[in-house]
Specification:
Blueprint (H helix, E strand, L loop, with lengths): L3 H35 L3 E4 L2 E4 L5 H8 L3 H8 L7 H14 L5 H8 L4 E7 L9 H13 L3 E7 L1 H4 L4 H9 L3 E4 L9 H7 L4 E4 L7 E4 L1 H14 L5 E4 L7 H16 L5 E3 L7 H13 L6 E4 L2 H14 L8 E6 L3 E3 L2 E3 L1 E3 L2 H17 L8 E3 L2 E3 L5
Parallel strand pairs: 3-4, 3-5, 5-6, 6-7, 7-15, 8-9, 8-10, 10-11, 11-14
Antiparallel strand pairs: 1-2, 12-13, 14-16
Length: 382
């Protein structure tokens, strides 16, 4: 018997079955991409369903024989947790692949676990070496924070309405300020008035800052050259930098020379940076009496010009003045390895995050700034 209702239902059932089939195929086809959103307890590897073991703070605590609260505070960098305990907790967390559930933490605490790194739109005011950025991101990640980069023009940084509005839009828990030259006059005042922790990087500030100890580095470098027998050491800076390190390094050099009863000599007031004019100026320096036996260059930029001039002046390595400089790694220029004062990027990042965590615990506290020492690398054949 023909049933009209059956005739009507057959196409509908066929469509419904097709929809279920498509859903089933698509789910199994793309499940590895979506399981994190819908079923974070499972994953698929080569077609096999495997259980993910989510590492918790409680598990870390049980393995280390600590309380869960101690583990939590250690992961958050709480100042009352000893460095030894914190290192044990971080090592175990890394071994087990522990990752903080930032979404749950945001919903529970209202915190985003994001730290913003503020940069200028003008490059020389916010120079950011990649090595330092890597260490900074690594240290923050160890404490459950993500790093995001933000750039603002000077007129915004100097605006009492625009800057607070920008900070609010970022939704960050704290701000790292990598702005160290020609700082807008109102910027500090505006930041201080906001209820958000912030810390200066590579900027000579009396409070809440981490920066390299450039004066001590130049003093140590000069003392090392003096101990090697050099007496006619010349300091060279042609960059006309407005960064604090320009004056600090020259001051360190001058202090070391005077302490040793030697006469400081600075070059750098070159009328132009055209290569042939610069080489002429350096030739005059190299031939004037007393002839320099060593140079301290503010940066690799001066070092390469100095080295080129010394090679032209004295082809034999034994007759050349020694060229030294400051850089992020042991420097070799024109196939000549140079004694190098190396920037303490890893230590700076560690100090910066330690201080920022203290500021997060108490936004109104003022912390004494930390000057981080350089490391001197001297090539074996020097």
């Amino acid at each position: 018997m023909h049933d009209p209702a059956h005739t009507i239902m057959m196409p509908y059932c066929a469509v419904l079955a097709l929809r279920h089939a498509i859903f089933f195929v698509m789910k199994w086809r793309f499940y590895p991409l979506t399981h994190g959103c819908f079923d974070a307890g499972f994953t698929y590897t080569q077609g096999r369903k495997e259980r993910i073991m989510h590492v918790t703070q409680k598990q870390i605590a049980e393995l280390l024989g600590l309380s869960q609260m101690t583990v939590h505070k250690a992961l958050c960098g709480h100042p009352k947790i000893s460095q030894k305990t914190r290192q044990r907790v971080l090592a175990m967390a890394e071994k087990l692949g522990y990752r903080r559930n930032t979404a749950a933490a945001t919903m529970r605490t209202g915190k985003t676990s994001v730290v913003s790194l503020l940069l200028s739109t003008i490059l020389h005011r916010s120079i950011l070496p990649q090595t330092f950025l890597f260490h900074l991101q690594h240290e923050l990640q160890n404490h459950g924070y993500a790093l995001q980069l933000e750039q603002l023009p000077d007129h915004t940084l100097n605006d009492r309405q625009a800057l607070p509005h920008a900070l609010q839009e970022w939704r960050s828990d704290a701000i790292l300020i990598n702005y160290h030259s020609e700082i807008p006059p109102l910027m500090k005042t505006i930041l201080t008035s906001q209820d958000i922790p912030f810390l200066w990087l590579n900027s000579d500030q009396p409070h809440d800052a981490v920066y390299p100890d450039d004066k001590a580095a130049a003093t140590l470098l000069c003392h090392t050259l003096i101990a090697m027998g050099h007496r006619h050491i010349v300091y060279c800076d042609t960059t006309r930098q407005t960064h604090y390190s320009s004056l600090a390094r020259e001051a360190g050099y001058t202090s070391a020379m005077k302490d040793a009863g030697l006469v400081p000599r600075r070059i750098g007031s070159f009328p132009t940076k055209e290569k042939h004019i610069l080489q002429q100026e350096l030739h005059q320096v190299l031939t004037a009496e007393p002839k320099p036996t060593a140079f301290i260059a503010y940066s690799p930029e001066e070092a390469v010009h100095l080295l080129h001039a010394t090679i032209l002046h004295a082809p034999s390595p034994e007759d050349r003045p020694l060229v030294t400089t400051f850089a992020g790694q042991p420097l070799t220029l024109l196939d000549v390895p140079l004694p190098t004062m190396m920037f303490p990027y890893a230590k700076m990042a560690r100090h910066a995050v330690e201080m920022l965590l203290q500021k997060l615990a108490d936004v109104h506290t003022k912390l004494p700034s930390r000057k981080v020492p350089f490391h001197l690398h001297v090539p074996e054949q020097t």
